[in-house]
Amino acid sequence: MSKSYKTIETCLVHAGEPHPRISGAVTTPIFQSATFEYENQASYHDIRYIRLNNTPNHVVLHHKLSALENGEAAVVTASGMAAITTALLSVLRPGDHILAQNCLYGGTHDFVTQYLKDFGVSYSFIDASDPDSWESRLHPKTRALYVEAMSNPLLEVPDLTAAVKFARAHGLVSMIDNTFATPVNFRPLDIGFDLALHSCTKYMNGHSDIVAGACIGSARLIEQVKHKLDHLGGSLDPHAAFLLERGLKTMALRVRCQNSSALQIARFFSEHDKVSSVNYPGLESHPQHKIAASLFTGFGGMLSLELKGGRDAAESFLNKIEIAINAPSLGGVETLVTRPASTSHAGMSPEDRRKLGISDGLIRISVGIEGTDDLIQDFSGALEG
User: Fold this and answer.
1) In this structure, is residue 2 part of a structural domain?
2) Would you call 51 a catalytic residue per the annotation?
3) Which residue of 24, 235, 239, 270 is most buried, as measured by CB atoms within 10 A?
């Protein structure tokens, strides 16, 4: 969080805003212009052009996002996957090797396992909760370590302090997807991570109406990412940038509401006789609860669970919910419920899903900002109906 503000709420509203205000406008206007007058820029990457992610709408976001996570710089992208893939391709070269957490978002897993080889990059998966096993997975050309603050969809919490220590000891670039935690609950650069990545589609924007991503870190690394992004072309549209800036201003309010509601809902499910297991790091029964409690100021709005009865029970539950919506994605004001095997992780083979513990009956819930009592009543009815 920016040192000039005492609270993240103020940082979200005011960090990065243009001064003086543009024609007095309290809200940054939408600069729907693809190109701008040439001003003798010394570098191609500094020429004002929409594909180069440096319109006024982009610049405001870059300053705001870097302030939120105490980074030196940030760059926004056209999607969360654009942020992840561009960052990986900026850090890795042909012949390099990466260590990655074994349970990742399906899109990230597919890119690592199916596409990095096309760029001459190899990988090894690690158990992120077992630091003692990581060294055995190192290669002479290992260059990066990649984890998620909370894994999708099992809500595992890696030993993040150990991850930073291990990366530094072996000269690796430490990369973390902080989408689920958000800077409201956790700022990974503060404990030493090199790059924080976000799908801003989710909590950053919070309204299920845009797709965007971001990379935050040191000026040197972000410059590498931006230069790669300039040529890959994953630029964020100015109108989407405007909506993202607007969404960010309420993120702390939304996320804290979702933290509280998700914890109550997780407790409800954990006590229900038709539920076999609940994955939520805020529960004391969660295997990494102590790690999460030591690092996070809140446990997030995501949880997953298994019903007794497997896939059939899960499908019945999804068909009976009324307030919550059966839909993929997460982090919005609406509560969304999905079966990851058929949505977020559908690209993985059934064998890979089973190895990671993602069953066909696993249900993932993104808790919105509706009344908690209403949601619990909805879920109770779906379980009993």
Assistant:
1) no
2) yes
3) 235
